[in-house]
Amino acid sequence: MRDRTLVRITLLLLFLSGGIALAGTGKHSKKAQSTNTASSAGPKNLPVHTKPVRKPIDPDEAYKANCARCHVEPRKFSERETATVMLHMRVRSNLTEEETKAILKYLTQ
Amino acid sequence: MRWSWKLKLLLFCVFTLAAGLSLHAQEQSSTESPIYKEPSPIPILTGYSGFQATFQPGQQQLQPVIAPIILLPLGRRVLIEGEGEFEGDYTKATGQPWVRHWSKGLEYLQANIFVNRDLTVVGGRFLTPFGIFNERLHPFWIKNVFINPIVTALEMDSSTGGMLRGGIRLAPDLNINYAAFFSAASTLKWADATRAAGGRFGIFLPKERLEIGTSFKRQLQDEHFNTYGADITWQAKKVPLDLRGEYVRNRLQGSGYWLEGAYRLRQVSFARPFFRKSQAVVRMEQFFVPKSATGGEGDSELPDVSTQRVLFGWNYYFTDALKIGASYGRSFSSERDHNLWTIGIAYRWMIPLGGTK
Questions:
Q1: Å from B136 to nearest chain A CA?
Q2: Could you tell me which residues come within 8 angstroms of residue B159 by beta carbon, excluding any fewer than 6 positions away?
Q3: Is the Cβ pair A18, B207 closer than 8 Å?
Q4: Which of A25, A34, B257, B283 is most exposed by smallest CB count within 10 Å?
């Protein structure tokens, strides 16, 4: 019974990770493909966007919405310390990659 | 231990997949702006220290705590992190001598691999991803009231095994986040764990600053049972008000909820230097004991009878890293009603272990 449960969990984890990984890399591939098409079109042809450009994240809003949700706004650390802290916070608070990068840029620029 | 080779297989599969995808994702990572250069992370030793004194009729309790945290990044795709916790408990009952006890434990020691934008693979010992209190709010310098909500005893533990997690931006105002874990049993005194599986799924609306989550955990050793949870976090935009709450339930240990509002007194027009750094907190909680209760697990003990509690707290932030707090609470139960007073201090510290430039 235990074996069967463990096997099921193993398969579920692998399936889930595989699915998410493929979905993630699929997005990258499409993005890369779109960029290539645009860059290879040459100066005469205007870039063709097959997909609407995603609205960028407002870094100030991302900072306030995510960091202050749990704790007081931290003081400014050095750039490299902030980079480490953001890796930690990405895991701890399940931040998206876009939010993590936007907040890091906001805090270090 | 018939299944031990399967557990090894599970870990091998997860890490092989993670390593492969990590390499793939690294090829595709690029700097978004030609001007901005993302700083490279350095190792950090951080953590928090604190002291809490609790007074209730017939009992005084002093609890010093120190929790060092190490963050060791390996490039931008891997982070190894660990937290130890050393907590003292000095208790004196009326007419009795002081009883002292120090406990030490490994809260987490985990390797995080950022496989791609949507997936992080975690292996090792980690805080069980159930609800919001255990993973996000439990540190002394973060929680608004030094006393933990009663029902968090059902969620506050660590797991040893593997976890998949991440946050995904579905639309400009819609994020989802998830964590799915499997834990093997561990009987190590400083790092015990229960064989269990589960996870949390959350929806976050950044513009509204609202997050709603749901959690599930199934214990897979001794008596098998499920624990269900739901959580909510909301930050008002126009006033500095935070609302948080959780509901947790399982049929063996009980069920309950806590709901907390915290208000930064920035808008008080007199004595501004004082009130600008002050925060008022109110927490309401209830815990219901089932007929066949088996008691709690983790850091806190559950009450023997159904209990209601209301707490009024006040925090003063000298800096973002140093605060003092006090609270008054009234506990209501069929055994007795009583007052609960707490004062405490918390300090978060950070030491870089590498060049900061």
A1: 7
A2: B125, B126, B127, B128, B181, B182, B183, B193, B194, B196
A3: no
A4: A34
